[in-house]
Amino acid sequence: MEKLEQLYEGKAKKVFKTDSPDVLIVSYKDDATAFNGEKKGLIVGKGAINNRMTNHIFKILEEKGVPTHYIQELNDRETAVKKVSIVPLEVIIRNYAAGSFSKRMGVEEGVKFKTPILEFSYKNDELGDPFINGYYAIAMNLATQEEIDKIATYAFKVNEVLIEYFDSLGIDLIDFKIEFGRYGSNIILADEISPDTCRLWDKQTHEKLDKDRFRRDLGNVEDAYKEVFKRLGIENK
Ligand code: TMP
Question: What pairs with residue 91 in β-bridges?
Fold first, then answer.
């Protein structure tokens, strides 16, 4: 497969065309942003960690029946993926109160919910990814009812699989954001699952092992990414 011209550059990844019309190459950057790009920085080594972590997790999810865009890891930073049309929704699952939920609802970070919460944002940087619900998504033609139903089912399945997996690594999965794409008539998981897009807290110490260390200037940002990578056991694979 041949890598062709760059199609798009996002905040954390670049996307390239290939000589196959159904295949793209994503290339993960070390760049980090927060607050809709207002805060900018670099997390050295993040690109390679997020690439390899996402691929590792996507393979686990495929085995558990969640279809993903993953095709093949090409090198430390680059992966061949199925070309999808992204559904413009940020799909968030929360198991514990944190972040924008805590702010909005006045609930202390770390409080466990009785049941997981599914939440949608409209993926639109100009508007700052506003909070919406399924009715907005359908009314605004962002997705159909059938697509929303599939997305919700897959999102809860991803949560179930990841809670158990991270638990085995001594990590509590506080919340995460995923994105889905249209692939033919199917909906498949796309984008990434990494410390950029999850809140991951050490089970014992409750230390934050994710991008909140960057967002909130907590220090040891690179170490947190490396610690998660180490626990995944894929450093030398
Ligand atoms: P929030 O509490 O700030 O709404 O974030 C919920 C989860 O979504 C958290 O795990 C971080 C992740 N997230 C992203 O991946 N991208 C984003 O742009 C935002 C705001 C959050």
Answer: 120, 178
**Ligand 1 centroid distance, CA of 191 (Å):** 14
In this structure, the answer to whether residues 53 and 163 fall within a common structural domain is no
Q: Give the pLDDT confidence of 110-150 residue by residue, as tens digits.
A: 999 999 999 999 999 999 999 999 999 999 999 999 999 99
User: Is 123 among the domain residues?
Assistant: yes
The answer to whether 229 and 49 are in contact (CB under 8 A) is yes
Nearest atom, ligand 1, residue 174 CA: 10
Q: Enter the pTM of the model.
A: 0.98
| CB within 8 Å of 115: residues ≥ 6 apart | none
CA of 34 to the centre of ligand 1 (A): 9
Pocket test for ligand 1, best of 94, 101, 111, 175 (most atoms within 8 A of CB): 175
Task: Check pocket membership of 101 for ligand 1, CB cut-off 6 A.
Answer: yes
Would the pLDDT of 235 be above 90? no
Same domain, 92 and 208: yes
CB-based burial of residue 107 (10 Å sphere; 0-12 exposed, 13-18 middle, 19+ buried)?
A: middle
Q: What is the mean pLDDT of residues 210-236?
A: 96
